[in-house]
Amino acid sequence: xxxxxxxxxxxxxxxxxxxxxxxxxxxxxxxxxxxxxxxxxxxxxxxxxxxxxxxxxxxxxxxxxxxxxxxxxxxxxxxxxxxxxxxxxxxxxxxxxxxxxxxxxxxxxxxxxxxxxxxxxxxxxxxxxxxxxxxxxxxxxxxxxxxxxxxxxxxxxxxxxxxxxxxxxxxxxxxxxxxxxxxxxxxxxxxxxxxxxxxxxxxxxxxxxxxxxxxxxxxxxxxxxxxxxxxxxxxxxxxxxxxxxxxxxxxxxxxxxxxxxxxxxxxxxxxxxxxxxxxxxxxxxxxxxxxxxxxxxxxxxxxxxxxxxxxxxxxxxxxxxxxxxxxxxxxxxxxxxxxxxxxxxxxxxxxxxxxxxxxxxxxxxxxxxxxxxxxxxxxxxxxxxxxxxxxxxxxxxxxxxxxxxxxxxxxxxxxxxxxxxxxxxxxxxxxxxxxxxxx
Length: 439
Prior knowledge:
The chain is of the alpha/beta class.
């Protein structure tokens, strides 16, 4: 084969796709701005292990991971906790971020992938209507296909020509700012739940978690607005009133990051270009987890590239990738973005009402543990009747839930209307309809 493929950025989906394509005989090089051995935040992450096999990777050694604890969710009042009950064969694994990267990179290099570190990507190189390379601090680099794995704010995607019809900007309510740190354990006091997730705690519009480990306490704060370390310190003091194990000394972490929590990218491909991972907004909108989806997407993208016998890598041939991703994952994730918008429109009192009246249930929280679409929801008719009765007692909440349901229906319909084959005019017309659902 020999065609040159450039992967911009060492995102999880990009490095996984690079490995599959290199093994298939392509000349694949990844360009990454960071130094070798420095990738990954100073904390752990979770993902479904079955995604490794789909991407052609082996499981990491047993000393490198553990299985994630079930989470217990609380509303603002903290009166009622809803615990997940994830079956053992569905449990996600928890690994150090740096170990995840080490595992993925080692696999890719063994497959023949070349990686050039300390090479910052600045944007795309465009010739006519085709992406033909990337601009870097070391000069322009040309390739037959550019896989964009530079993350949510990718300089490649954000500098594509308008006529490509690919979304560039991410609205503030489509991304969540995360602060996470491991604090010392200040007390041996027993905890009601080892892994607590708190929605709208203290009336704050956002999500927080406190995971009580043997030798530390894992604290995460997520907000749909900018915040600083002063806010972190003040809110951590507020949490310590009811979580005495949360110490004041930061052992590790202490970083701010931004994560996309929105519907998948409406158009992921162009002539010579394909977006993957956070660049294509592949996280689950309600929880922000995206590693497994990116790994699964890597296989779909690689299959589309390998199936292109003429190796033209046009939008027409790469459209199979977008079609495949939406069929397997995207069409199930897109409606969940409507659920996230609903959450942002609720008051703390309404969130408490959902918990305390049994409208939110442990079954729904369990679904959220490994959620790739609405198709996996099993509805108990008796529970549904009770939930409907409780919702009807709050007209304003009912109105919001109905609006959310309508928008979810529109999202499902929009995904079903996606053109089966690439036609630039039809695709861009469809993308406008799809994007309008979330305005």
